[in-house]
Amino acid sequence: MVYVFLAIAIVAEVVATSALKASQEFTRLWPSVTVIVGYALAFYMLTLALRELPVGIAYAFWAGLGIVLVTLIGVVVYGEKPDVPAILGLGLIIAGVVVIQVFSRMSSH
């Protein structure tokens, strides 16, 4: 169940972060509400995940997957185009999360 909480936290954070641009500096109501609710849900779910996961592992997943997912949303929704170094960096982030999950004894399986 801990990874379900973490997954919800990551998705909520990605939605909130993606809505930041649409909020236009908190001048548009519904995107601004999405940001606030999304971050509140994200942090609450993260606290539930931290009951069992070490904070470093949880944050590695949170940050790593969040960066990749927000980048993908930027491509699809906002037409942003990552260059080759950005794509390589994202690949390294994904590889880091996989290494932690597969090989680290610190991660709870």
UniProtKB/TrEMBL annotation:
Protein name: Small multidrug resistance pump
TM spans (from-to): 29-50, 57-78, 84-103
An MF annotation (GO) of this entry: choline transmembrane transporter activity
Any one Pfam family match given in the protein's UniProt record, by short name: Multi_Drug_Res
Record membrane topology: Multi-pass membrane protein
A GO CC term attached to the entry: plasma membrane
Subcellular localization: Cell membrane
Keywords for the protein's UniProt record, in alphabetical order: Cell membrane, Membrane, Transmembrane, Transmembrane helix, Transport
Top-rank taxon: Bacteria
Main localization category: membrane
Annotated GO biological process: glycine betaine transport; xenobiotic detoxification by transmembrane export across the plasma membrane
Family, per entry: Belongs to the drug/metabolite transporter (DMT) superfamily. Small multidrug resistance (SMR) (TC 2.A.7.1) family.
